[in-house]
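Worked example

This section walks through a single chain of length 220. The input is the sequence exactly as stored; nothing has been trimmed or padded.
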Amino acid sequence: MFESVGSLLGSPWIYAVIGLSVLLDVFVPVLPSGVLVITAATAAAAGSTAGTAAAAAAVAGTAKQVPQEVPSLLALVLCAATASVLGDLVAYRLAWRGGDRLDRAIARSRRLTRAQERIGVALSRGGGALVVIARFAPAGRSVVSLGAGASHRKVKEFLPWSALAGVAWAGYSVGLGYFGGQWLGATWIGVAVSVLALFGAGSVAAYVMRRPAQAADPAA
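Given that input, the structure is written out below as tokens.
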């Protein structure tokens, strides 16, 4: 499965590629950052399984133990979470500084305008769980980061929730890839099932984000 990308998965460059993808997908949500994280974690699962088999063979005297170069799960989580927070902060600062073009773009977008209002109220009340939920929703991270910046929320109100969201998303994605690789093997089927689980969580998060706004509209 991983023959075509094996050299990258076994190289430290995989962290740079994942970090850049996660950082930039706040601006380009179509980037496959989640797929990259899951694929790398699946490779780690495959490597750990192969390493265990090689060690057993070496003990039995039937083969030599060969170190397996695979991504570190902890490094994957830290890399993805750090890049997520950095991307959030860049979007937040850009929206904070604003400008006529950005203000007009937000004013034209009902989704961004509504998010700006909701995230401002949520953070002022200490209910930043919306930031965590939005991290799993398609483009939700972009909407919330831009909304927090455009509404001029204090960084101390936004940053802790952004960090929690980044760790939760990174841990969930790495966990999906690793356990999917353990249970289904290092195959495209295993990666596909893990990616579907990630998209499923995104769909639930998108529904949860929309529901309060829809419920609030009649009362407005």
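What to look for: The chain is about 80% helix and 0% strand.
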